[in-house]
Structures are given as C-alpha cells and as structure tokens.
Amino acid sequence: MRPPTRRHPRIFTGIFLAFITTMLIAAPIPAARAGATWIGQKAPEFSFEKYLNAPPGTPTTLEGFRGRAVVIEFFSINCPNCLAAMPHYNELARSMRERPVTFIALTNEPESDVRAFMASTPMSAYVAHDPDWSMWRSYTVPGVPLAVVINPRGVVSAIVHPETITPELIEEVIAGRTPDAPLSDLVRDPNAPESSVNKFLPLMLVDIRPSPPGSPFAMWKHDEFRARGARLADLIGVLLNIPPHLLVSDDLLLDAKYDVVISPPEKNPALVDELLRSVIEQMVRPRLRKETRPMQTYILGARPIDAMNLRRSSESTPRLTGGSGRITAVNVTIAQLIANLQQELGVPVADETGLTAGYDFTLEWTPGDRASLLDALRRQIGFDVRIERRPTEVYVVRRGE
Predict the structure, then answer these.
(1) Which of 27, 51, 135, 386 is most buried, judging by how many CB atoms fall within 10 Å of its CB?
(2) Are 41 and 156 within 8 A, CB to CB?
(3) In this predicted model, what pLDDT tens digit does every residue of 99-122 receive, in sequence order?
(4) Inter-residue contact 267 to 35 (CB < 8 Å)
(5) Lowest-pLDDT choice from 20-24, 56-60, 204-208, 363-367
(6) Three-class SS of residue 376?
(7) Radius of gyration (Cα) for the chain, nearest Å?
(8) How far apart are CA 313 and CA 163, in angstroms?
(9) Is the pLDDT of residue 55 over 90?
(10) CA pseudo-torsion sign 119, 125, 126, 128
C-alpha cells in the first residue's frame, strides 16, 4: 500500500508552466528518492499527533528519546502484510522491554478505526497516530509495512521489513553500530532492469539523455527538476529566466531535445538551481550577448467579434489545461495564450488584437506541426494570422571554450 504522491510545482512563467505541469503529472517521469530518509543520516523529527496507548510522559520528539534506540513501524490496519508482521513486532516489544529501545507503530487511519483495531488486537508497541501524513512525508515512506530503526544518537541505522528485525539487530543499533540488515524491498526501484546490480532507488540523481522522437514537452521545477522533450533553449531559458524563443545561436542546436531529471539528496530548491546550472555549464558552457536581429514573427490580429470563437469568461480564476496538441482555456488573456504559442512555435508572437479581457476557448492541432497550429488559430478561434520579419532584441548563445 503506497501513500498518495504529493507534488508542489513552482509556477515560474505564469500560466504557461501551469499548463505543462498538468502534462507532466498526467504522465510522470519515474520518481527518484529526493530528500529521502536514509541509513547514516539524522532521522527527521517526529510530527505525529499523539499516542493512543502510551503512558503519560512518553516522549513525542526524537530528542526526547536521546540515549534510547527507537523503532518506528509504518503500518496500516487494512494492509494484510502489516497484520502478518504485527505478532512478531509485538513480541519484540514485549521481549525487549528492559532494554533501552522503544517500539512505535505509526498509522494514519481514522482514530476510531484504529482504536477498534486495538480492541481486538492488543498492542505491545506504542501506537502513534499521524492523520495528516506528516511523518510519511518527512520520512519519504514508499509503502507499508516499513520499519525505520534509529540509534540512541538519533541516526537512522536500518530501513527494513518489520519481520526481519531481530533482538541481535536491535543490540547492534543500541551499541551504535550499523547492522548488516537487508533493506526493505519497498525501497527498490520498480523501474530498474533485472540485470541492474543496484536496484535501490537513488539517493541523488542527475540524468540527461536525448528525448525519444515525438516526446511531448513537459517541465516541473521545485525541490526537483524534471523535463521531458525539453529543447536546449528551454533548459537555458529556465536557468537564466529568459523566454526560450528569444535565444538564438550560430553554433548550437538549441532545438535539440532532452529528458532531464535532477533529484538532489535533500529538498532544497536552491540546490536544484545549482545542479541545473552545473549541468548546463558542463553540456555547453553557454555565453550570451544581446543583439537585435530580424526575426520571423507571427502576428495575431482580431477579426470582427462575430467572426471569432472567443467567449468572454464569467470565471474569476484563469486556467489553461490540456496535453500535447490541445488547450482548454478558461478566463485566459491573449497575452497568456501568446506565452504558450511562443513555447510551441519557438518564435516571437506579437499581439495586435486589441483584446484585453479573459476568454474561454478550446484549441486543437497536430502536435509538432506548426502549420496545423496556425490553421487552428485561424479556423477554430478566428484570429487573423500573418508572418513578418521584425527587428527583435534576442540573446545570442555561443558555446564557451
């Protein structure tokens, strides 16, 4: 049983990234184990709500257990494997009562259900209640049952299936040593090939590879960076906060596409930026200068309103959703639409419509087909679209020596 995935994208080019974030969540790149709790690291602080069966005064903080080992079993009362492991876990808690170790069973299910379970299944371990999943998130729990064993100095010493815990393992942890314990199968990478020597989820990952042909564009950036079908111009643009359509080069293929995953060992957006900068520097060592050049520019003009398929929106919140080759817009301005068109077309788009309100509309085209998109703008929305070469201030990118 796996807890639901929570994503927290940072929107850094307005509604445009809201759109592409939707695309990425619909078909995510396999996750790395960013910010994971791992052996040898300081254990995250406790944040459960309360105990359901511990005596008054039982510590509720990690520091409160200083000098004692702690075993936390993440479990669910509706998980068959958890229920199968419970007798062994309870026996450990009973048999080691005189040793400096505390056993905690942590669940997030409704308190009434957990208390009913405890009435029929006496628990020797202290049962802790975490209804908001905060401990699951801070410990990056991939599933249950999972036991995290913490030594008396507050350091993670083992991450195991509860049934593999033995008194000998606990004594090793009490003594401050790292036991030779098998890692739980839950921390194995489900996408690792059978021939892989190390099948465990990575603690840190920087992966750059060419995109397969036809990969739809998607990008997500916060405490990780993930991109699929991203042009080199997109990557440089994100790093330098420059719209990609304003990047040009005489010695780089800015439209070469890559899949990129940067997953640092801790949840730190600043570290993501640092690693992304290092990746781009190693790939191309970009050097930029401003220059005015004549650029092919797409001009959007308005036709009489009765010839256009734009409905003035009655909604208050702008939304731009969809996937490859489709946009559904609610209360979206022409300027916001143009931000997306410039990403799709890779060239400047100028607004000469004079339209300033927010509009509802749907747009469909053949992905990757510029002519199809221009035709959709004309036929489905009713824009007057023409192409001109206009002087534009751009950033010329050169490969550094």
Answers:
(1) 135
(2) yes
(3) 999 999 999 999 999 999 999 999
(4) yes
(5) 20-24
(6) helix
(7) 27
(8) 58
(9) yes
(10) negative
Q: Please name the residue that has the structure tokens 């801790």.
A: 266
- Bridge partners of 392, per DSSP, are 293
DSSP-derived 3-state class of residue 319 = strand
CA distances from 344 to 138, 260, 350 (A): 38, 19, 14
Cα distance between residue 22 and residue 324, in whole Å: 11
Beta-bridge mates of residue 299: 350, 386
> How far, in Å, CA of 255 to CA of 310, rounded?
32
Distance CA 1, CA 4 (A): 10
Does 191 or 223 have the greater pLDDT score? 223
3-state secondary structure of 397: strand
372 to 80, 366, 379: CA distances (angstroms): 53, 6, 10
| Contact by Cβ (8 Å): 219, 20 | yes
pTM of the model as a whole:
0.66
Q: Is 310 helix (H, G, I), strand (E, B) or coil?
A: coil
Please list the alpha-helical segments (H only) found in 165-268: 167-174, 232-240
211-235 burial, b for 16+ CB within 10 Å, e for fewer?
beeeebbbbbbbbbbbbbbbbbbbb
- In single-letter form, the type of residue at position 224 comes to E
Taking the C-alpha atoms of residue 41 and residue 247, their distance in angstroms, rounded to an integer, is 42
Query: How does the average pLDDT of the chain come out, rounded?
Result: 88
Residue 35 has a pLDDT of 58
Least confident piece of the model among 17-21, 189-193, 325-329 = 17-21
* Residue 344 near residue 231, CB atoms below 8 Å: no
Q: How far apart are CA 209 and CA 243, in angstroms?
A: 23
Summarize pLDDT for 248-304 with one digit per residue, the tens: 999 999 999 999 999 888 878 899 999 999 999 999 999 999 999 999 999 999 988
